[in-house]
């Protein structure tokens, strides 16, 4: 199977998955921080998914089982929301974790480790987040809040170890995104540096990963790699018209909405690393 996963295979897979999102409009429940709600909901809907920002614990038993995927993001974690996160992660739907600033506190680290034990299909973080989560350490001297103080390649071994110990696909974002199930490593090299200057692009791309998993839960590794590459490609196209972070945000969402087969199959840069 691996031998046939050429760059051309990945390009076709990325288009097939984006097409599946557009056709099936997966319902994605998002329990996410308040900063990211707007960009995540807009990225999801531009891609063809159906976002729902529901976090009241009383709604989860009725609503979550009807979702195609669940997205949980601890960016603005609180004692009130953690029970909802636990309940939604335990509802039997495929789900994706964004461990924003996991090293911020022991409360956040313990919450993320507890959620990790509830078997997310995918964990996506920046390099500092994946390094911290893999080592269960909330005491890094280089901690910079929600931003990464490491390059994605520095977290590759940690990502592989975390994938093996948790059973999740682990994605590390950065200039090059790395996606691993603990054995295979995929690189996705789309994107522009200016994406780091738009608040909550990381949160938005994790939401998009959840939509791709919801559209096709059979291969979380492919879903995560293709969602990251497609989001990055939308950033590249958006950058052609952008003057700065605010206009890039708008043009990225427009580009995500307008992607066609030719643009996706010629533009995504996904490769299986040897
Ligand atoms: N230097 C870069 N060059 C190109 N794309 C980048 C770069 N840094 C981040 N990205 C892209 O921006 C998005 C958010 O990633 P990142 O900034 O690592 O997440 P977070 O916001 O959680 O820290 C991802 O799609 C990633 O591929
Ligand atoms: C600023 C901020 N504070 C808590 S969550 C959040 C957004 C983080 O977004 P991202 O992880 O995409 O950088
Ligand atoms: Mg983040």
TrEMBL record:
EC number: 2.7.1.50
SUPFAM superfamilies assigned: Ribokinase-like
Origin: domain of life: Eukaryota
MF terms (GO), sorted A to Z: ATP binding; hydroxyethylthiazole kinase activity; magnesium ion binding
A Pfam family of this chain: HK
Cofactor(s) needed for function: Mg(2+)
Reaction equations catalysed: 5-(2-hydroxyethyl)-4-methylthiazole + ATP = 4-methyl-5-(2-phosphooxyethyl)-thiazole + ADP + H(+)
Pathway the protein contributes to: Cofactor biosynthesis; thiamine diphosphate biosynthesis; 4-methyl-5-(2-phosphoethyl)-thiazole from 5-(2-hydroxyethyl)-4-methylthiazole: step 1/1
The keyword Transferase is assigned to this record: yes
Gene Ontology terms: biological process: thiamine salvage
Record-linked InterPro entries: Hyethyz_kinase (IPR000417), Ribokinase-like (IPR029056)
Keyword list, A-Z: ATP-binding, Kinase, Magnesium, Metal-binding, Nucleotide-binding, Thiamine biosynthesis, Transferase
Entry annotated with the keyword Magnesium: yes
Described function: Thiazole kinase involved in thiamine salvage pathway.
Family statement: Belongs to the Thz kinase family.
Name of this chain's protein: Hydroxyethylthiazole kinase
Organism whose genome encodes this protein: Triticum turgidum subsp. durum
